[in-house]
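so my prof wants the structure for this chain in the tokens format not the other one, which i didnt know existed until like an hour ago. anyway here's the sequence
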Amino acid sequence: MKKQNCICEDCDRNIFLSFDIIAEDRLSQMPEFTHCLAVVKIGSEYLLGWNKWRNRYEIFGGCKEQGESARECIVRELCEELGVDTSGICYLGTMKFLMKPDYFSQNERIELGGLYGVTLPETSLDELYRQVNDKDEIIKLAFYSQVKGKEPIAVIDEKLLDYYMA
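here's what i got, hopefully its the right format
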């Protein structure tokens, strides 16, 4: 895989290959569809969660469960991770990744994920964190502007912020 043809590469050598507009229902049927992520905004700020397993700030989301559509996956993940109303969620498109061997698979593979955006009403981080259901994974919240250049942020996730301009 030629590096110059990719959007970016993370510290685990996973490569963000492309962002494409594939219909949400079509994505849900594709065998390479494995996960969904969401860019969350509050006002003009991007919200990130500290993932204690990966020791860095990330956007929100996770792996699809058996039989789940892309929308069902992201709604469940946002409810688990943030405990928020997802009625305003919008589908942005499809991310294509070349994933290196990891916890999920011993093989290098292509994965597709749905990217969503949601804007939440203005609230304090403390108030929002009280709603987080998965405190085993997400141990703190921060605005991107507060941690950029100061704390580790998932490289691919940081790039994904550019795709939601609500």
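also thought this was worth mentioning. The beta strands are 8-9, 15-20, 33-42, 45-51, 56-58, 60-63, 90-99, 109-120, 138-143.
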